[in-house]
Sequence to fold (816 residues):
Amino acid sequence: MGRINIRSIRRQQIVHAAEELAAQRGWAETTIADICKKADISVGGLTHHFKDKDDIMFAVLEDVIHRLHDRLVASVSKEEAQQNPGAFLHAFCQSIESDRSLYRLILHFASSSIHRPDIKQRLKAFFASLHQRDEAQCQEQEKRKDKPYIRSQAMADLLQCVGLGLILGYAFLDLQTPAEQMEVEAAKLLLPYIQYQSASSPQS
Amino acid sequence: MGRINIRSIRRQQIVHAAEELAAQRGWAETTIADICKKADISVGGLTHHFKDKDDIMFAVLEDVIHRLHDRLVASVSKEEAQQNPGAFLHAFCQSIESDRSLYRLILHFASSSIHRPDIKQRLKAFFASLHQRDEAQCQEQEKRKDKPYIRSQAMADLLQCVGLGLILGYAFLDLQTPAEQMEVEAAKLLLPYIQYQSASSPQS
Amino acid sequence: MGRINIRSIRRQQIVHAAEELAAQRGWAETTIADICKKADISVGGLTHHFKDKDDIMFAVLEDVIHRLHDRLVASVSKEEAQQNPGAFLHAFCQSIESDRSLYRLILHFASSSIHRPDIKQRLKAFFASLHQRDEAQCQEQEKRKDKPYIRSQAMADLLQCVGLGLILGYAFLDLQTPAEQMEVEAAKLLLPYIQYQSASSPQS
Amino acid sequence: MGRINIRSIRRQQIVHAAEELAAQRGWAETTIADICKKADISVGGLTHHFKDKDDIMFAVLEDVIHRLHDRLVASVSKEEAQQNPGAFLHAFCQSIESDRSLYRLILHFASSSIHRPDIKQRLKAFFASLHQRDEAQCQEQEKRKDKPYIRSQAMADLLQCVGLGLILGYAFLDLQTPAEQMEVEAAKLLLPYIQYQSASSPQS
DNA sequence: AATGAATGAGACTTCATTCAT
DNA sequence: CATGAATGAAGTCTCATTCAT
Fold:
């Protein structure tokens, strides 16, 4: 077990170094030597833990997804989510400001997705899981209120786009609007839309 | 004049080839040799027209911005815009489906912005110009209706994020929702929000 | 004849431009495009006058030799030279300060001589001609005075080295000693040596 | 320690190969591939030890200066120098014949100095250090003999020029005069001048 | 004679990967 | 496990030269 710990500690060192560098300069501009220097490990040492540069990249991707999951899903308990439809939005807006480097990495991977089907697949799978969870929550919520749950694909897509847009906005445009204010504003935009939808769409 | 035409024709050839390749594989994965092959020109010939690989990239960026401008701004006449607040949205959604490679390039440049201040500056300047135009239109429109025009910074940022989100969604997630449907849905989301804002915020 | 003049004027333009650039940056660092720009001529135009980059270089070499000849030989009339053994030294020291770029070019060609036998041959031939002329003058002078003229090869070589050294010193070390002072100093060094030689070496 | 040795051994291999080639063909005509072939190392291996082609060049420059220092300074013990003013001249003339490639490199660097201030600075610093040492020796020597030491700047410059001239003469003109003979001749030229100077210039 | 666009060989440099120690 | 020297492929860029107009 000590072994395993050392292994995973080393891996973490490397992944963190890679993340930091990639968020600053981009992945293509980050060399293995850079990562080694920052992680304080030799080139050969790195090779023991990661077969490839790609191997590191996927580890970074997993870590990014994991961190995003923690922020958006794990931090919002089921009960909260059910009682307050804005809880997710709150968690999202909180994270958006406190962890810009995370969103830079997401933007980076999203861009890479264009020519890397493997990355695309992984990312889409994650977003799909978010979406499913969201849907499940809605259904449960609506069930409780005895209202039929209906959410069209277009609606789901649109909501996802809005989420991505906020990420892109903060990662790329460096929006100065503070997260709390943005949260209020986004609530004004989204809540009526969501409620209007569930109320008015008996058939989609 | 023949000379000038030849110059610009060649430049166009090269820029188009570069765009096509970059939209497919990404810029870093596109070699100068690839561009030359696709543009049917020799390496040295390319050098005559572009100093650098970067020089090509900026030409591509300008072309992308130009195309986006045409789609979003030029195609919506002033009159239309004033009479129909959804005209812009319409133009946007139209373009989103017909020209995915354009949005891939934008996603690419957005991602590059993270570590290339020069690209970031150019892109932000363009988005700011879009935003200004939008604001001007709103003011004019509201003036006519004798209603005070108020749009908070947060609102403007949010709307810009939504736009970026749609781009990112289509460029990266390959959304299958057809553009017309998405337009309808986006209208449901945005129009109430916009009108609510202008109605309810006498002072921001 | 007009034709010939135009030709030679163009050639001069080009050679002068090439000299200026080579004296500043060195020959290898001077591109044909640079020369064209400075000579205000197109690449193709240059080709009409010079077959090669080498062709230009040899034209420069000839011009340099010509200028040096003018300074060292032509400017010292035969009579002067015979009456005053320091006349040559004077001409030399004069030129050394007034035309440093000339000496830079000589240093450049001297250095190139190492790997370019053709340049070496041309330069050595010129220096040999200088040497011969010097010797002839000495003989004539000595004959008049009824003293046997003897100058060993070693002596000739040494004197040539001193000359080269002054060139190198000014071209490379940027000596600050004014030419007049250097002339005085060199006279103190050389004149006794020359006279001592001719007096004391009845047989070499 | 093994590591360090390997590093410096490899560096030496590379520097020596570079020197040999540069002395033959000139630096600009020496490609990195050539150096690699001669040093029996791969391109990437070379990069490990030298960042740049320039980096190699400066290592060569340092080596050249080091070798020159050894020949001219280290080989002449202080005692010798003080007792025999010709010792330095002797060392110099000895070296001039036995190590022509060294002088070719010096000529090369001198020529490069024209357009490379960094090289110029390094070389001038070395020659200045030679000059200082020379001056210090003279002062000590003269002190012992109770004669005032006076050496004008012009005199120092002239002597340095003579030294450079001998280098240039052998490096460039391929003088055939054997070193011993040249030494005798140079002594005839210089010794009277030096002694005359120190005797006759109570105030300069 | 003149123009300058086009060519393509070749140089420099970077870097992911391998491997002996 | 770890080190870092070594490899060599691949990419970018420069530039002398050619050639159609």
Summary: The mean pLDDT of chain A is 84.
